[in-house]
Amino acid sequence: MAPPFEGRTTTSAEERDGSGQSALAPSIRPRKSTIQPYQRLADADKGTGGESLANFLGLFSIGLGLAQVAMPGAMSNVVGVKDDDQHRMLMRLLGLREISHGVAVLSNQQPEKPMWSRVAGDVLDLALLGGALANSDNDRGRTLFATANVLAVTALDVMAAKTLSKQPDTPVHQAADHGIVHTRKAITVGAPVEAVYAFWRDFENFPRFMRHLESVTDMGNGRSHWVAKAPAGKSVEWDAEITDERENELIAWASLEGSDVYNAGTVRFRAAPKDYGTEIRVDLEYKPPFGKIGSKLAMMFREEPGQQTEDSLRQFKQLMEIGDVVVSDATRAKGPHSAQPN
User: Fold this and answer.
1) pLDDT higher for 171 or 213?
2) Separation of alpha carbons 269 and 250, rounded Å
3) Angle, CA of 308, 310 and 314, to the nearest 5°
4) Number of other residues whose CB lies within 10 A of the CB of residue 176
5) Angstrom distances, CA of residue 247 to CA of 39, 193, 250
6) Sign of the alpha-carbon dihedral angle for 316, 289, 111, 301
7) DSSP helix/strand/coil, 266
8) End-to-end Cα, the chain, rounded Å
9) Mean pLDDT of the chain, nearest integer
10) Buried b or exposed e, range 311-342, using 16+ CB within 10 angstroms
11) How many CA atoms lie within 13 A of 256 on its CB side?
């Protein structure tokens, strides 16, 4: 097997006196054949970011809107306008708009359009504050302070909206427009490819290393029935079928129409370098039952499918390498429990 790096490495003396080549020098970079598969994975998933800032602004919008609806008089005083019935009504309407913008941002996987809606709302707010400044009866100091704050938020809104607008046209982002979440996880298992593939291919083994699964039933002809745990002691069920399979290399699946939860993906198996074992790469897409908000809530309890996949791969590694899944007493006992395991 050819070494993954080509050329020679630098000596410590060369690095000290600067006469040698740096760690990023072309002569010691990884071979193209080594990095190309990983580069293709990165290119298929790449994005420009902006989601975290959009999420923050969505939460900020809901908080501001609730304050405007619940305390219109106090908010009128903050911006320096009179506390009368007309301004209270306007403040409540502006609050309802803010809440709707926040919900739209947080409920969309790709909130580009809701963010531009926030920008339009900011322009309206600035126009109203400009009118307030023109009225000498208002407290212009407070109005100027409120205007400065709105300008700062507008800058953040524009930044997030422009960043989201530059997202590349990849399959991942096209699916996100329809509320589908995409995740990739990988792990290396110290066992031969043939053994890893055979164990994974028997889907009825899955509850042994996937804690969120209650059961998997193989119905034959590449179809299986899955039952998973859901919040509040409930469960969700779906049927899935294998859409592509190459022994010791790949298994692809998709849930059937009418399933409680849409999910599809592929699992790839390949020999790890230096005969260490097997690389497993899981490529999963799913549609959260309650959209992006449901996905965020699931993350709080580590019940989001991407997190579950990561946990399951770690437990699968333990099962293949030592024959059992090692868990702590805190993992088995939910809520307060005695320090002494039973």
Assistant:
1) 213
2) 6
3) 115
4) 21
5) 25, 10, 7
6) negative
7) strand
8) 51
9) 78
10) bbbebbbebbeeeebeeeeeeeeeeeeeeeee
11) 11
Contact between residue 184 and residue 170 where contact means Cβ atoms under 8 Å apart: no
Domain residue ranges of the chain, discontinuous segments joined by +? 51-165, 171-325
83-110 pLDDT tens trace: 888 889 999 999 999 999 988 887 776 7
pLDDT digits (tens, 9 = 90+) for 202-251: 999 998 888 878 899 999 899 999 888 776 667 888 899 999 999 999 99
Distance CA 64, CA 57 (A): 10
Dihedral angle, C-alpha 85, 86, 92, 97, nearest 10 °? 180
Q: Would you say domain 171-325 falls under CATH 3.50.50.60?
A: no
For tokens 């309650």, the residue is 290
CA distances from 339 to 321, 328, 332, 334 (A): 29, 11, 13, 13
